[in-house]
Amino acid sequence: PATTPLLSTPPVGKPSLSAARTAAGLSITFTGTLESANDVKGPWTAVQGAASPLSVKTDQSVRFYRSRSQ
Questions:
Q1: How many angstroms separate the Cα of 12 from the Cα of each of 9, 28, 44, 50, 58?
Q2: Whole-structure pTM value
Q3: Cα(34)–Cα(52) distance, rounded to whole angstroms?
Q4: Which residues pair with residue 70 across a beta bridge?
Q5: CB atoms within 10 A of CB 5
Q6: Using CA atoms, how far apart are residues 18 and 32, in angstroms rounded to an integer?
Q7: CA atoms within 13 A on the CB side of 2
Q8: Cβ-Cβ contacts under 8 Å for 1 (sequence gap 6 or more)
Q9: CB neighbours of 34 closer than 8 A, spacing ≥ 6?
Q10: What are the tens digits of pLDDT across the range 23-58?
Q11: What is the helix, strand, coil percentage profile of the chain, to 5?
């Protein structure tokens, strides 16, 4: 299925994160360590076992993601 890019932040030498809508929900592609939080202010926790690209169902409540240096 086709994907629609939502966000792309590719700074050179720094962690990157991009997201695209898919038929199943959302696909998050990242470098570094993926973290998530229920609020944009945190607290942030590492997404255990996350490998890029990560498929996320969109049937859950609001969730924020970021990528940090390893």
A1: 10, 18, 23, 22, 29
A2: 0.75
A3: 9
A4: none
A5: 11
A6: 12
A7: 1
A8: 22, 23
A9: 17, 28, 46, 47, 50, 52, 54, 65, 66, 67
A10: 989 999 999 999 999 999 999 999 999 999 999 988
A11: 0, 45, 55
